[in-house]
Structure formats: C-alpha cells, structure tokens
From TrEMBL:
This is Ornithine cyclodeaminase. Gene3D superfamilies: NAD(P)-binding Rossmann-like Domain (3.40.50.720), ornithine cyclodeaminase, domain 1 (3.30.1780.10). GO terms for cellular component: cytoplasm. InterPro entries: NAD(P)-bd_dom_sf, ODC_Mu_crystall, ODC_N. Pfam families: OCD_Mu_crystall.
Length: 335
C-alpha cells in the first residue's frame, strides 16, 4: 500500500492567509475541549544539547479527539535559541508532524514556526478574553521576539486599547517592533526604555522577555487592582511575592506547569508558592463553562501559559485542512 503525506513549508502556509480571528477561534475551541476532557495531553520534555548553553529543544505531544472525523495526534519539536538573532535567524523554529491516531499513518509535516508564534498570541488573547477587564485600555508588553507580534495584535483586536507600550533589552529591537506594530494598528504605540515604564498603570501586563538568568522585570508593585497579568518568559522575570497580590491564578495545564526546568513561575512551583490547592483553575475549565472567569472589576488575575501541544495540533489541522482544499504543498511518498 502506497502512503503519501503532505509537506507544508513556511511559504505554503503563508499563502493560505489564515487570519487572526480564525486562529483565536481554533485555539479557544481546543482549550474548551481540554476543559471537557476531549484531549490527550502530555507535558513537554526538553532536549538540552552540549552547545555551550546557546539553546535547547522542546518536545510537545498531544491528541485532540474533536478534530475531523477521527481526531488527530501530533508531535512538535521547537528550538529555543536566544542568540539566533546574531545569525539573522528566528530564536524559535519548529516542525510539526500530524498522525492518524487509529493507524499511526503520518498525515503531514509542517513548518511550525508561524504556528508557534500565533498560537502563543492566541492563548494570551483567549486568556484575556475571559480574564481581563473588557474596558482594558493600556497594554504594557515586555519582549519583542516572534510571539510578541501576535500577542499585541491579537489583544489589540479584542480590546478598546488607547495605548500600547513595548520594550525589549536592545533599543533597535524595541524600536523596530514598535514600527512594525504601527504599520498594522491605529492604536498609539510607544517604545519605552524600561519594563517599569511599560507596566506603569497598565491594565494588561505581558512579560515575554528573553532572559538568560532570572531578573525581576515585572514587579509586584506594578500590578494595580483590576489588572490582568501574563508572564510566560522561559526564564523568570517576576518577583517571588507576585502571587501574594493575585485574586486568581490560572494556568493552561497544571501538569505542564510542574514539568521541566524552565518557566516564568518555576520558582513559585518549586518553592510551594503555587500549588494545585492555591491554583484557581486551568483555562479550559473557564472556557468550557465549568468555572467563572473574571467576576469583579477590581480582581487581579494572573494567567501563566507554557504552551500546550494540543494548540499546535489544532492549528496544524486547520492549516492541513485548508491546504488540502487548495491543493497546496508538496506530496511526499512515505512508503
């Protein structure tokens, strides 16, 4: 029996013109499925090569029963190499493989670099949709890496923002990021020199930094009543007492929050400051209607998402379905 699979490179995927609204819808749908127990999810594992500390790989595995007629399983490998900008490369590059969960037959291989960027932004947006104040006006964003653009533009599409403040460690990076944002939004965008400036009186605070060692960029004192906070940098950039002022702490998946050696709240989990008992909910419980999200305007709510494999599978399936309809990509003979 001859088996073919579809290979989709970055250009193939770009040509499909899948919009932000479609991405957010797909992510919100699979988050709800996770809340209903309709997914099989395994926490990520890490491969850290002997490369002098320049980066590592994340391996993500997941299955979504609600996709198509048979469900879809998938595995993504994504590199996280901070110094890549010195070589003109993205810091995160990824490949996704999709499989038939009933036979193990491979269905597709996809460049998942864009998937990684937009699914992260969409998860931030879905969390904000349910947990931020609807009238949020000021967004403070630290970090200008690939996922940052999707974070900001998707949040901008959902909220009546009056100002977007962005910063990053390198001045040329934050200025270029601000300029890129101004090309796609009418919301005023301001590049600032420090995280403190970005977060001053902000309604939504996103920490997406690229630190090499822990450093408190998102300070507890910056979180005003009613604020929505999203820290998800690989290395912690928050203070240990941050959770003390939070009315609710929400994660994407508690098992994922406990896994691996990286993550914005790794120290909080390891020291017992964040436990299953102190956690308010997983986002899927809220999106699927099991628990309420924001209940008061003055609630301080934190959402920590590490990135779920099921988001990659859901967006991979969306792209594959669209590519099949358009007959896009390259068919490869598997056997």
């Amino acid at each position: 029996m001859t088996i073919w699979l579809r290979y989709l490179n970055g250009a193939d995927i770009d040509e499909l013109n899948i919009g932000h609204a479609e991405v957010i819808e797909a992510v919100e749908s699979v988050v709800a499925a996770h809340g209903r127990g309709e997914t099989v999810f395994e926490p990520r594992t890490h491969l850290v090569p002997d490369n002098g500390g320049t980066g590592h790989f994340n391996i993500l595995r997941g299955h979504v029963s609600t996709l198509g007629e048979r469900g879809v399983s998938g595995v993504k490998v994504v590199g996280d190499f901070v110094p890549n900008y010195l070589r003109g490369l993205p810091s995160e590059m990824a490949m996704l493989t999709l499989f038939d969960p009933h036979t193990g037959v491979p269905l597709a291989i996809l460049d998942a670099t864009l998937i990684t960027e937009v699914r992260t932004g969409a998860m931030t947006a879905v969390g904000a949709k349910h947990l931020a104040r609807p009238d949020s006006a000021i967004l403070g964003h630290v970090g200008a890496r690939g996922t940052a653009f999707a974070n900001v533009t998707m949040l901008d599409s959902l909220f009546p923002l009056e100002e977007i403040r962005v910063t990053s460690r390198r001045p040329e990076s934050r200025e270029a990021f601000a300029a890129r944002l101004r090309e796609v939004t009418t919301t005023p965008v301001r590049a600032v020199a420090t995280a403190d400036e970005a977060y001053d009186n902000a309604d939504i605070l996103v920490e997406a930094s690229r630190l090499e060692k822990p450093e408190p960029l998102l300070r507890t004192a910056a979180v005003k009543p009613g604020a929505f906070v999203v820290p998800y940098g690989t290395i912690s950039a928050v203070e240990l007492d941050l959770l003390d002022v939070m009315d609710k702490v929400v994660v994407d998946d508690w098992r994922e929050s406990q896994s691996g050696r990286f993550g914005a709240l790794r120290a909080h989990v390891d020291t017992g400051r964040l436990t299953e008992q102190s956690l308010y909910a997983q986002l899927g419980e809220i999106v699927s209607g099991g628990k309420p999200g924001r209940e008061r305007a003055d609630e301080r709510i934190l959402f920590w998402h590490r990135g779920l494999s099921i988001l990659d599978v859901a967006l991979g399936h969306l792209i594959l379905t669209r590519a099949q309809a358009a007959d896009t990509g390259t068919m490869l003979k598997y056997r």
